[in-house]
Structure formats: C-alpha cells, structure tokens
Amino acid sequence: MNKASARNMFIGATVIVSAIFLYMTVLSIKSFPARAHTGKITEEVAWGKKVWEKHACIDCHTLLGEGAYYAPELSNVIKRRGEDYVRVVLETTAVQGWGATRRMPQFDLSKKDINSLVEFFKWMGKIETSNWPPNIEG
Ligand code: HEC
After folding, report:
1. Which atom of ligand 1 is nearest to the CA of 107?
2. Ligand 1 atom 3: the closest Cα is on which residue?
3. What is the mean pLDDT of residues 72-77?
4. Are residues 25 and 43 in the same domain?
5. CATH of the domain at 85
6. Cα separation of 58 and 62, whole Å?
7. How many domains does the chain divide into?
8. pTM score, whole prediction
C-alpha cells in the first residue's frame, strides 16, 4: 500500500465511521422525548417535583441512581411497593419505628403534596431507562 492509498483509506474510514456515529446520535436524541415521556408531565407531577426539592428528599434517597445512598431508590418505588404503601410512608410519622436503625423523617405533608409526590413517582417509574439503575431491591 502506498502513502496515497493509506491516506485515502484513513479519510474514507473516518468519514464512514463519523456518519454512522452522527446517525446513531440523531436516533438517540430523537428517542429522548418518547423515552422520558415528557408530554405526560402534568401540573401534579411538576408540583410533586417541587415538594421533592423543597424537602431535599435527595439528601437521603436516589432517583434513577443519582442522589444519596442512605435510603432506598425511589424512581421505581410504585412498582416495588405499590401506591398504598408509598402513601402510608408519606403520611406516617418516623417514631412509629419501621426499619431497624434508619428512619424516614415526618414532613407533615399536606394531602395535595402527598398526591403530587405519588404522581411524580408514577411518572418517574414510567421513564424508559433500559432498566437503569440495575438490581434495585426493596
Ligand atoms: C433523613 C433521610 C431521609 C429524607 C430526607 C427522606 N427520607 Fe424517605 N426514607 C428514609 C429512610 C431511612 C427510609 C427507609 C425506612 C425504612 O425502610 O424503614 C425511607 C423510605 C421512604 C419511602 C419508602 C421506600 C421503600 O422502598 O420502602 C418513600 C416513598 C420515601 N422515603 C419518600 C421520601 C420523600 C418523598 C422524601 C422527601 C419529602 C423523603 N423520603 C425524605 C430517609 C429519608
């Protein structure tokens, strides 16, 4: 192989691989709205996110694997525990003692805040993450 054909092969391969990379990037970006189902963010879901931020739930919990590792992952909590259980947790005081050493604080959340958090968790649970985070147990 002479110098010119080596150069041509390098340029050709670079162009082809870059085109494939670009095509796959566009495919990924196009799939994001459907995967994140952003069209389904209702006012309640948005309010639930505000309540989540106001009380800094992320200081102890994770969502989609991001956050603190003191308490359980919550993006899949509706699927793992069911809506009724989540409501009980949010309504119940910490002093009632479920859990051996770690306790969930009582935030005195209003009915509206609890309903919105539940809607927020339902919405989170439907994001298509290709099973990320993996191996989460109850
Ligand atoms: C100081 C740390 C801390 C903060 C802040 C906190 N939690 Fe928790 N949470 C916990 C712990 C610890 C548990 C596990 C309790 C147990 O299993 O006995 C828990 C459990 C839960 C559960 C049940 C999860 C499961 O899989 O059983 C939900 C739902 C929940 N928290 C929601 C929230 C929400 C919403 C907020 C913010 C309003 C919040 N938490 C803030 C510590 C915290």
Report:
1. 38
2. 60
3. 93
4. no
5. 1.10.760.10
6. 6
7. 2
8. 0.85
Strand partners, 63: 66
**Residue 23 belongs to what domain range?**
1-36
pLDDT for residue 130:
85
Residue 121 CA: which ligand 1 atom is closest? 29
Residues flanking ligand 1, CB < 6 Å: 55-57, 59-61, 70-72, 74, 77, 80-81, 86, 89-90, 98-99, 102-105, 107, 117, 138
Whether residue 20 sits in one domain with residue 3:
yes
Asked if residue 56 and residue 5 are part of one domain, the reply reads: no
**Mean pLDDT confidence for 2-15:** 96
Go through 24-47 and write b for each residue having 16 or more CB atoms within 10 A of its CB, e for each that does not. eeeeeeeeeeeeeeeeeeeebbeb
The mean pLDDT of 39-48, rounded to a whole number, is 96
Indicate the average pLDDT of the chain.
90
Residues 55 and 115 in one domain: yes
Over 90: is that where the pLDDT of 137 sits?
no
Mark whether 31 and 82 lie in a shared domain: no
Q: Whose CA is nearest to atom 40 of ligand 1?
A: 57
First-residue to last-residue Cα distance in the chain: 61
